[in-house]
Each structure stands twice: as C-alpha cells, then as structure tokens.
Write a structure and sequence with these properties.
By secondary structure, the protein is an alpha/beta fold. The chain is built from 14 helices and 27 strands. The strands form seven sheets. It has a seven-stranded mixed beta sheet. α8 crosses α9. The longest helix is centred in the first third of the chain and has 16 residues, at 47-62.
Length: 560
C-alpha cells in the first residue's frame, strides 16, 4: 500500500501544470483532448515555436487526443505560401503529424456571420476614427477611454456599413468594426477592441474574395470553438487576452474552448522576434532564414541538429508559468548528447601541420580499420588510408611544451589514432621561424595498438593522409550576438550593434576521403574536434561543412 502511495505521489509531482489541468478535466468526465498549433504564416518557425509544437502535439499524444494544425492567416499583407510550406516541413521534421489541417480563412464566412450577429445584439459597431484616433482615445490604465463619436450608431446603420465594408466600398483605414464592451474597463483590451479592418490585398488562399479581415482576438477563440478545441495553449503574453477570448465565445453562445498559458522560451545570445529576424534576413546580416546562426528550426536542421535533440531540449526546459531565460549551452548540451549516440566518427584536420614519416616507404599506401561509432556497435567500421605524408592538428605539437603535455613534441612519441606510433625527430621552419613541417619516424611493429618492445604512450592524436585528404570549406559558427541579452545596449545604440562579427568564421580543413559521401545535413563527429555536417551549399567539387557544436560541454560543467 505504501509503495502504491509513493508511486502516486511521484507521478503527481512529475506532472506539469498543463498535464494537471488535463487530468483534472478527465477526472471530471471530459473524455476528449483536442489541441491545436496555430502559427501565423508570416515567417519561419524558431526554437520557441518548437517548444510549443512539442507541448501541443505531445499532450495530445499522451492523452490519446488529437492536435490540429491551423494557420492564422488573417493578414494577407504579411503572409505567404512559402511560410505555410516551411511550417509544415518543420513540424514533420520534428516528428509530428497533425490530425487535421485548417486555416483561419476557412472560417471567414462563419466569422462574418457571427460579426453580423454581434451587431444585431448591439455588441459591435462601425467606427470611422483613424487608427491614431482610436489609440489616443483608448485612455490609460488609470484614465478611462473616450467613447467614439460613432459608438451609438443604430443597428441598421452598422449592418449597412459593415456589409458595404465587405463589398469593398471603402478604402483601407477608413473604417473598422469594433466590439462594444466598456471604454472604462481596467483591462485595456476590453475598451472596444477592433474586430475587423479593411485591407485591399490578395490573400494567398481566398484571393480577392475578402477585403475585410478579422483581428487575432476576434478570430482565434472562434476558430478554436469551431474545431472544438478543449485546451487552447498559448504563451504567457496572451494571458491578458484570455478574458476577451472568453467574452466573444460567451457573447456568441458557441462551444466554450478555453485558453491556458505557459512561459515562452527565451535563449541567451538569441532573438525570437520574427520582425527582427526578418530584418536580419532582409539586410543581409545572415545568409537567409536557414542560416545556421539563426534560431529557426530550418537553421537548426541545416546546422546538423537532430529532431530528437530539439524534442529533448523542449522536454528538459519543461512547462513553466513564469518567463525565464535559458542558457544557450543547454540546447547545445542536448544536441551533443544525441549526436554522441548516433553520429559516426571521422577524422579531419582543421589547422594542419605537415608530418613526413622519413622511414616510411615512399609511394606506399595502406588502409587501417577505424570504428564508426564506439557507442553503436552496429555502425561497423571503415577503412582509412595512411601514407608517408600526413596532416595533424597544429595544436597537437609544441616545441617547448609544459609538463603533462602528452601530444607530440621534439623527441617525443604519440600514437596516431588507429595507426602507428611516431616520434618527432626534426622540426622544419621557414625564414621567419614558423614551423612548416615535422619529420618523424614510425615503429613498423606498432600498427595494431602495440609496439615492438611493448612500450606505451599516453598521447593519441588524429590525422589524415595528405595525398588522400579532401579539402573542404569549414564554417565555424558562434553566437550571433556578443551579449547574452541582445537588447543590452549603450545609449544611442540598438540591438544590431551587438551583432557578433565573428559569428561565422571560414577556414580550410582536410578530411578523410569517406567524408565525401556524407549526406547534406547529417552530422558526424570530427574526432577530438566537434560535430559537423555538410551544408546545403556543399557540392562534390567544393565541400562545405558546418560546425554543429563543439565537443566541449560548458553547460554541463557549470551546472554540475
């Protein structure tokens, strides 16, 4: 009995507040769980949206429910099919599939009829004020708003004007339809919110059928009601919108969907504003929406992130009621953990120093067997070519090393990964004193992890055969901003002044030949260096690899 109680307590403690709400509703007899993910197709999804996707689809899956995908396409000026397609692609890449696909534009006829109903009930009116006048007359938190001169138009006049708005008789900005609620309400959103505005622009789905478009606060709750959404889950900034969401539903007497809010995701060194991200794209500060420095889902995919790593990150961050800022290192930790299990290992040298093995036969090449992934025996092995001339990392040699430096040094020995022991016999320099080449000897009897006399060395370094190496452009990515909070600026500066000029560094690397066959977007581990993947710019003639994440795990060390 005691063990059963402990299991129940553990289970209850492990539930987040949204799960608690759902389980309470189920306990009260609600047998259906229906969620939705409602993006506006005016940009590409980012990591914050990924969290929302995981929550909405994850809750539906956990409780045997359904999750719809609904595009909030109520502003034809900013929306495009390009964004619709990218959103679908990102959701499916994350591993989710929606139950039904809907658009707010599917409901334009119904929303219009409901607007007419509110006018007939005396709960909506046509206002001729400009946007600026409406804003000025809304008042402040401590000062009531000023009613519109047109607030008391008759029902008949409002119906006539609204129909004429729909029929295209008035120019943009000349009239709006407002809900008639309370110009002194403490919640500013209740001060006669705008329901419809006039926009003469072609819609990506409805063409020119409509020239009036519903505002978010009017369309969202009714769309949820039409789809009979049981749990409308939004980010925390929409909590002040919830009473208005409920007001429209109650005024129309329709299915009572209900809204719940969770804390949005904020990351250090990152901006989540689609408006600002669009500016970066338009001004050429980045290579596009999928630039690996961007926080978009397509950028993470291009950088080499896995769907599992993003889902794991969303789960690790959890569902909170208060906003907070998550360390970017936590996201990197998640992808590093996943790639350690699934990524195959390869050898690549990014800062080459030439090594000539003077006692190795000229013209000879042999193959050594290398393990593809020590975490996954099923990944098998591959053959790596070895020759007289090699490249090693320049950092793996020091002419005057400190104590406990176990890599290559004059007169010292190291093991070449999977291959022989070598000893540095001579250091070759140019006229300026720069090291250009190391001349070494090898132990011919040390090729199988042993040596001719049984000696062992502590240092093991990676390498590539110079004659077989594949040259590639390597893109090393760092945070896009120099400050944890990009909005942390001096007087007279903007967030753009915090852009990191070293956010992308291009170098030339030398790779083992098997890396030619790596598919675009598939991350591999460059042994002892980090995780990398071929970029979409990569071609057989010019390989381009992106650094997904380093091997160094700074976040885990800080948080131990």
């Amino acid at each position: 009995m005691a063990s059963e109680i402990n299991e129940t307590e553990t289970r209850e403690k492990s539930l987040n507040f949204l799960e608690e709400i759902i389980e309470e509703s189920i306990a009260k007899g609600e047998k259906r769980v229906q969620t939705r993910f409602p993006p506006e197709p005016n940009g590409y999804l980012h990591i914050g949206h990924a969290k929302s996707i995981c929550i909405n689809f994850g809750l539906a899956k956990k409780y045997g429910g359904r999750c719809n995908l609904r595009f909030d396409d109520t502003n034809p000026v900013k929306e495009d099919v390009e964004y619709v397609d990218s959103i679908k692609r990102d959701i499916q890449w994350l591993g989710f599939q929606w139950a039904e696909e809907h658009y707010a534009s599917d409901y334009f006829d119904q929303l219009y009829e409901w607007a007419l109903e509110l006018i007939r009930k005396g709960l909506a009116y046509v206002d001729d004020q400009t946007q600026e006048q409406i804003r000025e007359n809304r008042g402040t938190v401590s000062v009531p708003g000023t009613p519109s001169p047109w607030r008391d138009r008759s029902v008949e006049e409002n119906l006539d004007l609204f129909v004429r708005m729909k029929n295209g008789e008035f120019p943009d900005g000349s009239k709006v339809l407002r809900a008639k609620i309370d110009m002194a309400h403490p919640n500013m959103l209740f001060r006669d919110p705008i329901m419809y505005r006039i926009i003469h622009a072609e819609h990506h789905r409805t063409g020119n059928k409509w020239c009036i478009y519903p505002m978010y606060d009017y369309a969202h709750g009714q769309s949820d009601s039409i789809e009979r959404i049981t749990h409308s889950i939004c980010t925390l900034e929409f909590d002040v919108h919830r009473p208005l969401y409920d007001w429209f539903i109650q005024a129309l007497g329709i299915y009572p969907s209900h809204q719940y809010e969770f804390a949005r995701l904020n990351l250090t060194y990152t901006l989540m504003s689609k408006r600002r991200l669009l500016k970066l794209v338009q001004e050429g500060a980045v290579m596009g929406w999928d630039d690996p420095r961007m926080p978009t889902i397509c950028a993470l995919r291009r950088k080499g992130y896995t769907p599992a790593s993003v889902r794991n990150f969303a789960e690790m961050v959890g569902v909170a009621k208060r906003d907070n800022v998550i360390d970017l290192g936590k996201l990197e930790y998640c992808v590093r953990e996943d790639l350690n299990k699934v990524a195959e290992r390869r050898m690549a040298v990014l800062n080459p120093l030439k090594v000539v093995i003077t006692n190795y036969p000229e013209g000879r090449t042999e193959l050594f067997t290398a393990i593809n992934n020590p975490e996954d025996e099923a990944a098998g092995t591959r053959q790596v070519p070895f020759s007289r001339e090699l490249y090693i990392e320049r950092d793996d040699f020091m002419e005057n090393p400190p104590k406990k430096f176990f890599r290559l040094q004059p007169g010292g020995e190291v093991r070449l990964r999977y291959a022989y022991l070598i000893k540095c016999e001579e250091v070759v320099k140019d006229a300026e004193g720069n090291i250009t080449e190391l001349r070494c000897t090898y132990d011919p009897m040390s090729g199988n992890g042993s040596s001719s006399d049984g000696r062992r060395v502590k240092g093991v370094i990676h390498w590539v055969s110079a004659q077989d190496a594949v040259e590639a452009e390597i893109r090393l990515f760092n945070p896009l901003f120099t400050k944890e909070n990009p909005d942390d600026v001096e007087e007279g500066q903007t967030w753009e002044d915090n852009l990191n000029p070293e956010s992308m560094v291009k170098i030339t690397g030398y790779l083992e030949p098997s890396l030619r066959e790596t598919p675009v977007g598939q991350a591999v581990q460059f042994e002892r260096v980090g995780y990398f993947c071929p970029d979409t710019d990569s071609t057989p003639e010019h390989l381009v690899f992106n650094r997904t994440v380093t091997l160094k795990d700074s976040w885990a060390k800080i948080n131990k």
